[in-house]
Write a sequence for this structure.
């Protein structure tokens, strides 16, 4: 216990030191950018040395930011086997021991009996066995930390293969009326059914016999670490650009239309007015236009979504009062803000280019739904890649837009 406490304190100190380095880098960035802007005002074009210095600091800023985020995640990650001070049930302990015997030695009899007795909806010996519940919780928690869209989107867990929900496209007619006046019969609300099928996502980590025989190795922790990064990378890409074929449908894959002509089933866009770039004068104004393209009810919990390259360009912008529109986080582990709204950095968003949809804004919790089917399964395969043992690990996940009015896109077009 003392060792864990010392490690936690050390991690906390590392986070604080990394955050201080990040804030110093941001101050240096502002000074270099101010110098660039002053050069532009005096000479019409910026000095090459100043631009190179700014780019170097910008890259360093991203590196410091990544280091702070990594350390913050590590300091918050619970160790497997800890249950918040609560005793695990006897059944859970039995399942954990049986699962470890299956992973290490291939002994599946006890595990099969336990899942049959539990009448588990996820039990499927041909497709593998369910991992322990606490390991699944750690994997899903890590996915939320690593996958930027999962961290801000709506989440739903289901036991079936498809999640369906009705959605009111238009409500009943309403209005004011005098106390004794005739009431006009209200119209029937228009409903549509949204369907979110769950698709199979897999990873196949490999282990050596010596690793499996080593009792000092925490098998649950090893498996969670092996699959969480692979799952997070595949999910993150699908939630942004997935085509819906054997994977979730990303919010950039839906039909887009100019926001002035928006209709249900399409995603509204705001144009920058310049193909592949921000306007040369008052570039931040298009970001304000994007914010106010979203209705007020959605703005309270809204996020900007963009990749690192786009964020680097926006960092250089100032408002009419000379203040930077992009601001670093106030504390480690929190996202930076843009015009007062948090920024989710998703590397699967496109770079700035002609007609690119490089910036998204809106309430993703209401706008985009991620559907997780309960249970992560593991199938042990000691035959296909001797002398290694493969672990075919699968989870089922779906996703798509559930409210087309909640998300707007910035299109870099004339």
């Amino acid at each position: 216990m003392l060792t864990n406490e010392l490690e936690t304190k050390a991690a906390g100190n590392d986070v604080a030191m990394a955050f201080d380095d990040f804030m110093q880098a941001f101050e240096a960035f502002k000074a270099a950018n101010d110098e660039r802007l002053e050069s532009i005002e005096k000479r019409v074009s910026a000095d090459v040395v100043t631009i190179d210095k700014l780019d170097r600091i910008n890259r360093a800023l991203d590196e410091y930011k990544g280091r702070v985020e990594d350390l913050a995640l590590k300091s918050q990650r619970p160790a497997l086997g800890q249950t918040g001070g609560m005793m695990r049930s006897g059944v859970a302990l039995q399942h954990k021991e049986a699962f470890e015997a299956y992973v290490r030695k291939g002994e599946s009899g006890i595990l099969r009996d336990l899942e049959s007795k539990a009448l588990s909806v996820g039990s499927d010996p041909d497709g593998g066995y369910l991992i322990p519940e606490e390991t699944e919780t750690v994997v899903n928690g890590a996915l939320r930390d690593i996958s930027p869209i999962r961290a801000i989107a709506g989440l739903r867990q289901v036991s079936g293969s498809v999640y369906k929900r009705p959605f009111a496209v238009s409500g009943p007619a309403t209005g004011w009326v005098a106390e004794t006046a005739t009431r006009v019969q209200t119209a029937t609300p228009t409903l549509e059914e949204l369907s979110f099928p769950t698709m199979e996502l897999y990873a196949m980590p490999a282990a050596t016999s010596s690793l499996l025989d080593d009792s000092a190795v925490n098998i649950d922790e090893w498996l969670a670490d092996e699959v969480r990064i692979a799952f997070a990378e595949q999910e993150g890409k699908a939630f942004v650009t997935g085509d819906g074929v054997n994977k979730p449908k990303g919010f950039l894959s839906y039909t887009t239309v100019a926001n002035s002509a928006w209709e249900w089933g399409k995603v509204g866009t705001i144009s920058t007015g310049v193909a592949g770039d921000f306007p040369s004068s008052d570039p931040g104004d298009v970001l304000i236009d994007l914010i106010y393209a979203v209705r007020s009810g959605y703005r309270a919990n809204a996020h900007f979504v963009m990749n690192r390259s786009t964020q680097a360009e926006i960092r250089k912008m100032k408002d009419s009062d000379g203040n930077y529109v992009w601001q670093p986080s106030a504390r480690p582990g929190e996202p930076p803000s843009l015009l007062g709204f948090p920024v989710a950095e998703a590397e699967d968003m496109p770079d700035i280019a002609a007609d690119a949809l490089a910036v998204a804004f809106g309430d993703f919790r209401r706008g985009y739904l991620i559907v997780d089917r309960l249970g992560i399964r593991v199938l042990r395969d000691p035959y296909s890649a001797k002398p290694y043992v493969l672990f075919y690990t699968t989870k089922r996940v779906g996703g798509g837009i559930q409210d087309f009015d909640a998300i707007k896109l910035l299109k870099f077009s004339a």
